[in-house]
Amino acid sequence: MQYFNNQALNSIIFDTFSLLNPVTKERYRNPALTKNCLHHKACFELEEALKEIQQQKLYQCPHCNQQAFSKYDLVQDWRVEAYKEFNEEVDEVIIIKGMMFNKCCRNKYKYLNFFTQPEYYKQFEQIFERVENDMQIVSLIRRDLQQQQIQNNNNKIIYLCFCLLDKVKINIPVRIRGCQHYECYELTSLLNFQIENRKKIQYLECKQPFCSNRLRIAHKNYSIQSVPISKELDEQQKILDIQTLFSGISVDLDLLNVIKKSNPSSFKFYYNKKTENIEEDINKIDGKAVDPFIVKFYLQHPDVQQKMQYQEFQKIIQQQTILATQGGLLQEEQDLSKQLTLQRYRNYQVNMIDKLTQLTIEYPVRCKLCRDLEVCMDIRSYIAQFIYFKKFFLAKGFSCPICNQQLGQQILRMNIQNYIYLDPNILSYMYQNMSNIIDTKIFEYHGEQYMLQDFKNRQKIKREDYVASLLDRIVVFRQLFCRVNFELRIRQPLILYNCPDRKIVDFKSFYQELKKINFDLEKQGLILCRCNYCYRNPIKFIAGQIYFHEAFYEALNKYYQIQDNNQNESHFTYTFADTERDSYIKTVQLILPLKINFQRENGSFWDMMSDEKYQSLFRGSEIQGYKFKLFAINFQTLCKSQSYQINKVYMLIWNKQCRISINVLIKNQNNMVLKCV
Ligand SMILES: [Zn+2]
Ligand SMILES: [Zn+2]
Ligand SMILES: [Zn+2]
Ligand SMILES: [Zn+2]
Ligand SMILES: [Zn+2]
């Protein structure tokens, strides 16, 4: 008997396979083939073959009629390996380029046909050849733990296996290179996103809150191109785009292995500090996985207990959960999708107690008819209710346990994945607040904060770009009050990019205006400035029109720090140095009480410690009402056109002919840096 060898599957490009014996509907004990069998879809039980060889000196494969005359003519089927790699609940797998993955229940045409196209499977194979160690979830977690060691962090590290893009359960986990968070993407979701968007946008902005990384999905910016191109050229460009996308992602093998090893309906993993590995977060009773939501529902219903074993009930619910979390309901329900987008930046509270089990909701779900987007249930108790009705009231209709509206007239014909969806907004932010939610059973959804963060991370004019565009690094900022609310001092500046005067509004009043139009920019449009242009062109999209002004924000912060007593000015002047630290607001001219004695011999030391005036600068002094303290002196010797940073109190004078100019950096009480030349 030969052992399974990995090359056996290499000829398979893309296909779905059952791991079960089609007769018994269970796994084989010892799946085997004859050494000449070439098929992968079917195999036979080793014991049966051995028995026949013993009795009749011959076994003929029931699938292809190849013959075996002794046990040496038999080989292990690939399922032997699959049984090791996958959870015992896995009945079906897909094989892509010889590698095994959990079966994907997604729309085949939209999400799976990629793998039958040469460029895709070539690239797919390559990302497995260049797995990057520091892009694996376990190394990311270990890195964070090392950095936090001092803080003695006892929190359990939880990871949820939802794709950041469309919240489906991940089967093939990939990261955008450079992302530092644990959350990542389902490969098929990224590929579908690319197909639908590559000619509209060049980059996918990472969807993780507070991450400003992005993935290039097109090798060039198509919106610039105007001439129509041939089909061939279009095909070539598509290939370049596919290569571009794959070069920006990295597969997470650690995560892939734990996904395969876990129940296909599990989303929740945690970092086990003892094994230093990531594991499925499940509750086990007598060695069997028991889901707290499903078991609670089961115990509440004696009629279910009479009809079904617990494990059977749980398995049905878990299978339906997989379908519901891989469904494309939101992609199809455009209206609902839009409502959820409008909901994204509202402030609201969510009651996190599950209606049926009274446990704290972990996977927030509701039906497509539910109007109130601030109410949800846990997906497991929702589906348990559905299955319960399906088993006991199969001729009746089914009503949503949240909104009580009837979803179908005959439950028998209903598939749950066509009616419910996980709330992408709540799911995005709830896990950062999980400890708070467990304590209070309330999730404070702070849409306003999330919007400001999105501006600061993604929708901004970067400091470096702004500074690079300046002819003169000294800028006079003349608009200090919000364009919408003239009383309001600007604190979080948003610039109206298309306004001829590039007027500024404060985030706070922008948010107020959004609230007034129910967040529906697209439909209502906002007029934020009364100039001719802005009045005629209400803002209907944020992208391309409103940006957070990072450089102005920096200047304002410094301005408010030192100008506390003097805020009646109509403008202020800010000098942008290369770094924020060295940039300063021009306010005072200092005459330094420091004169240097040039009368020194070549090569002799000048003892500044004994210079009383020099010492007094370090002790701090008050100039024009502000307190300053010297923290660095930069002496420049003009004759050598080189600059020396001197932090010592001794300074070497090497040539008495040198002219010395002095740069002094001065700090005030608030650590504000002023610079005087
Ligand atoms: Zn055969
Ligand atoms: Zn990211
Ligand atoms: Zn409902
Ligand atoms: Zn609040
Ligand atoms: Zn304007």
Automatic annotation (TrEMBL):
GO MF term (any one): SUMO ligase activity
Entries under InterPro entries matching the protein: Znf_RING/FYVE/PHD
A single Gene Ontology CC term: chromatin
Superkingdom assignment: Eukaryota
GO BP term, pick one: protein sumoylation
PANTHER family (alphabetical): TONALLI, ISOFORM E (PTHR10782:SF4), ZINC FINGER MIZ DOMAIN-CONTAINING PROTEIN (PTHR10782)
Name under which the protein is recorded: Uncharacterized protein
Organism per entry: Paramecium tetraurelia
